[in-house]
């Protein structure tokens, strides 16, 4: 009696399935990395919000000493610190920087404040509408003599993707670039930062201070969840496609019953 042995054909992973698995792995890794990056951004944003809230609502302090200014290269160490400073406005060196706020389009009024020690600090006195850009249209706001200003320290703006380039020759300003303003207006010993004045009313009602933006969008958690969900969807889709590819090969390669009877 002859015993015929039957062997089960070995399953082999099709090259297309290997490609799908490779792409799935790469995409999943990228999506997980993006999700994790957003988690880190979430922690950074929460720390920023807490730091700004603490500084902006603290009791005002004096400005850093002038000998400390050259070392102030990291705005995170001082920005939004509430300070108080005394001096006299140099209205002849005022600069109007174009902006759009909740009050509509207009200008920030930036005026150097000359201090008794010979240094100067630029003060963002607040917002004026477009028809009040010229100082002659708001003479009551041109305060003379010694004034005391309370506000928040802000880092200089050097331009960027969303800010147009300043055109000092035509008196068109789009960024609060303190170094450039000091150079154009010949202001010596100028602080490398500026101060956003608080909401204390100015004579005549203009400029309108206290417009510093203290709220920051924080969508990082939803972004992280989105990236992680997409990573899970890619894994499921990759598994489904790979399973079907391998399944179709097995069905094609398996011998049919007609072939067995013919043999």
TrEMBL record:
<feature type="transmembrane region" description="Helical">
    <location>
        <begin position="221"/>
        <end position="241"/>
    </location>
</feature>
<keyword id="KW-1003">Cell membrane</keyword>
<comment type="similarity">
    <text>Belongs to the SURF1 family.</text>
</comment>
<dbReference type="Pfam" id="PF02104">
    <property type="entry name" value="SURF1"/>
</dbReference>
<dbReference type="InterPro" id="IPR002994">
    <property type="entry name" value="Surf1/Shy1"/>
</dbReference>
<dbReference type="GO" id="GO:0005886">
    <property type="term" value="C:plasma membrane"/>
</dbReference>
<dbReference type="InterPro" id="IPR045214">
    <property type="entry name" value="Surf1/Surf4"/>
</dbReference>
<protein>
    <recommendedName>
        <fullName>SURF1-like protein</fullName>
    </recommendedName>
</protein>
<keyword id="KW-0812">Transmembrane</keyword>
<keyword id="KW-1133">Transmembrane helix</keyword>
<keyword id="KW-0472">Membrane</keyword>
<feature type="transmembrane region" description="Helical">
    <location>
        <begin position="16"/>
        <end position="37"/>
    </location>
</feature>
